[in-house]
Amino acid sequence: xDKPRQIALQTLYEIEKNNAYSNIKLDENINKNIKMLKExxxxxxxxxxxxxxxxxxxxxxxxxxxxxxxxxxxSIWILNILRMGIYQIVFLDKIPNFATINESVELAKxxxxxxxxxxxxxxxxxxxxxxxxxxxxxxDEIEKISKTTSxxxxxxxxxxxxxxxxxxxxxxxxxxxxxxxxxxVNSIKITKEEFMKKLEERKIQYEELLLKDFLVIKNLKxxxxxxxxxxxxxxxxxxxxxxxxxxLNPKKNQKILDACxxxxxxxxxxxxxxxxxxxxxxxxxxxxxxSLVEQNIKRxxxxxxKTIVQDTTTYNKNLKNKFDKILLDVPCMGIGVIKxxxxxxxxxxxxxxxxxxxxxxxxxxxxxxxxxVGGEIVYSTCSILKKENEDVIKEFLQxxxxxxxxxxxxxxxxxxDIFNINQGxxxxxxxxxxxxxxxCKLEKFTN
Length: 447
What we know:
Number of helices: 19
Number of domains: 3
Structural class: alpha/beta
Number of strands: 13
Mean pLDDT: 94
Distance between the termini: 69 Å
Helix content: 40-55%
Shape: globular
Strand content: 15-25%
CATH architecture of the largest domain: 3-Layer(aba) Sandwich
Radius of gyration: 24 Å
Largest sheet: 9 strands, mixed
Oligomer: single chain
CATH class of the largest domain: Alpha Beta
């Protein structure tokens, strides 16, 4: 029996049964079997797992078309075997249908019984790429977007309400694209030119990006084992996340607060922009998250960061008026990073928005008290929903008349697909090279 498909199935089962994070469970199962897997096997397992999670609504819609048994009555094992099979038939071109069907039937025999294997065989023999294409004939726009992009109905409705049908469709499609491996060169240890030369020596393909310190890496596997990673010459970071730190525009020898710092990408970029001068205080609520920041600080050779375990929703009087600038990349729904974390589609609900925005408002209110007069805060999220972004800023300004939005002109912003730059509030659409992101800078002009 095909071992990679078994590992993919086991991973999907554990994700669904235990509500586990896909990246953690996938890494765990691959590492358990690493000695018997080739590099192409690891790529195939990852492709199947993320493909099924990304396209679950669409795959289930095709199952419903051909199954006499309701989805809820099908065992999780058999349901995921069907999803894997349909994903391969509809979305992958390199695998012959007969091979997919045969392997799926064998899996069904092992994880079900003979009747299960017949059931799987009967359904998969009917499936073709046309089943997906026919979904575009659905008349209702919300239902069509949901089923053709595998996006929850509530999110489609919210995007249409805030934008329009065309924008919602574009966003949902972009959130299904395979994410690129984007890295930020650590200029504290190496120049970009030197780093690119080292990539070329190792026959690693790359492309330069809009932001000066960032590259797309094309053919690198198992990053943690790569010598240039171990030496701290780069960190994995999306351009949008980098832009949040860049937009804060930290200066040498300033005192900076990164109030929601884990895993440390933005913290270390602030340090890089400051050339390791001044002081950055990095806060996180839990020790295990602070440990992630500390690992990156050490690997990248950062000297100006002090880490503190602290709940950012609780006021600390010792920090009042202490900082020149503050970065608040607050916890959010994560809608803008779905292409990297497709679990978000199924783990987040519309009801979560109220609780999350409550925390966001609280963090902004508390941390604003830590800013000096004349200082600046960048509030950012990796989400694109108005309630988490524009609405939070507007409410804060109403309650804090000693703050105002500070508009910054950056040449890079002119070449990015931004939904709206509304009075200095920047909502970046998900697009190649950029996750969906919101960024806004606030200035404190009096106490």
